[in-house]
């Protein structure tokens, strides 16, 4: 870092605080309200030559702005949220945090399309959760407890948007987060946004899905009423059994710990990605190796767009180990 992210004043590599505005340089996060979309500096064609009017000088495409396409990068972590090809707006949100020498945190929330102000609900939820997780990283708090507290904060934030006269469309969203400290990570979730562990080639700790969907179909599969194949093909497969928001009640997240022996990535994503690549084998087939988290996030996002892009797509990639 050569300039303060708050006031753009010059800072030294060893500075802990900006002498100009006082910002703590060891803590870096996405801005409250989400990235503004200006961070996307590469067209889907691969060119970085974007003119002042927002058009790619190589292929001529108009570049998305605002919430249509958001990219954000911090050390060891990167995220992309894209509106997709068919939805009128992006109702997904993401938040990232990095605390020097302590770890990183990330949250993905997917606004429930049948609720009102779903984009606001998801954004308020990720902002509230990120504040809790980053504070825990600063203070060296327990990641599992921090995850539970983060979900409670996110639920309150999304629930505050609800209108008493319209309980059937209360703003709501799903939730998945990761808090990486040391060489492991703690994952928490509510709903059907997912987390995966994608191991580097040759690793002893195999790639696997870390979350189980809170959906009507997943519940019936667990009870033995439906097979996996039947659940996938059922029209109710995406009906949520748990979520965050004004009508969710008090929600406790599922929490799992990951302590791999080797290096890899934790992938957080909304169903705009996993609908096309639901299994770890599918994701392993399309993700690049040996590249930055941002490059991985871009490749996975573009794979979902090529596959149809029928929903909002959010992808967050976190380096673990190595």
Could you provide a short overview of the structure?
By secondary structure, the chain is an alpha+beta fold. It has 7 helices and 14 strands.
CATH architecture call: 4-Layer Sandwich
The dominant shape is: globular
What is the CATH topology?
A: Phosphatase 2c, domain 1
Radius of gyration: 19 Å
* The CATH superfamily title: PPM-type phosphatase domain
Q: Report the helical percentage.
A: 10-25%
Could you give the order of the helices and strands?
EEEEEHHEEEEEHHEEEHHHE
Tally of DSSP β-strands: 14
Number of helix segments? 7
Low-confidence stretches: none
Which CATH class?
Alpha Beta
* Main beta sheet strand tally, sense and closure: 6 strands, antiparallel
> Which whole number gives the mean pLDDT?
90
Which structural class do you get from the secondary structure elements?
Answer: alpha+beta
Strand percentage lies at 15-25%
Distance between the termini: 23 Å
Trace the largest sheet across and list its strands.
Answer: 1-4-5-7-8-12
Q: Into how many domains do the coordinates divide?
A: 1
């Amino acid at each position: 870092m050569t300039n303060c992210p708050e006031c753009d004043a010059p800072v030294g590599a060893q500075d802990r605080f900006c002498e100009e505005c006082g910002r703590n340089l060891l803590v870096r996060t996405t801005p409250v309200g989400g990235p503004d979309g200006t961070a996307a500096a590469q067209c889907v064609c691969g060119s970085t030559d974007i003119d002042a009017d927002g058009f790619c000088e190589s292929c001529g495409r108009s570049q998305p702005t605002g919430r249509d396409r958001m990219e954000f990068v911090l050390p060891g972590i990167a995220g992309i949220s894209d509106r997709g090809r068919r939805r009128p707006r992006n109702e997904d949100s993401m938040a990232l945090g990095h605390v020097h020498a302590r770890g990183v945190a990330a949250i993905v929330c997917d606004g429930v399309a049948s609720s009102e102000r779903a984009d606001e609900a998801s954004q308020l939820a990720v902002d509230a959760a990120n504040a809790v997780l980053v504070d825990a990283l600063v203070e060296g708090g327990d990641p599992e407890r921090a995850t539970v507290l983060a979900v409670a904060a996110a639920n309150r934030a999304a629930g505050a948007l609800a209108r008493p006269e319209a309980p059937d469309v209360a703003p709501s969203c799903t939730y998945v987060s990761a808090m990486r400290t040391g060489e492991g990570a703690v994952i928490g979730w509510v709903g059907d946004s997912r987390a995966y562990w994608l191991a580097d080639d040759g690793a002893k700790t195999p790639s696997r899905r870390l979350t189980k969907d809170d959906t009507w179909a997943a519940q019936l599969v667990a009870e033995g009423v439906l097979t996996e194949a039947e659940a996938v093909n059922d029209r109710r497969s995406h009906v949520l059994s748990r979520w965050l928001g004004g009508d969710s009640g008090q929600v406790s997240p599922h929490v799992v710990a990951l302590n791999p022996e080797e290096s890899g990535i934790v992938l957080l994503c909304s169903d705009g990605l996993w609908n096309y690549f639901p299994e770890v084998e599918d994701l392993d087939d399309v993700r690049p190796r040996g590249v930055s988290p941002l490059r991985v996030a871009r490749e996975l996002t573009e794979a979902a767009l090529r596959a149809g892009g029928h929903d909002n797509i959010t992808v967050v990639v976190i380096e673990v180990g190595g």
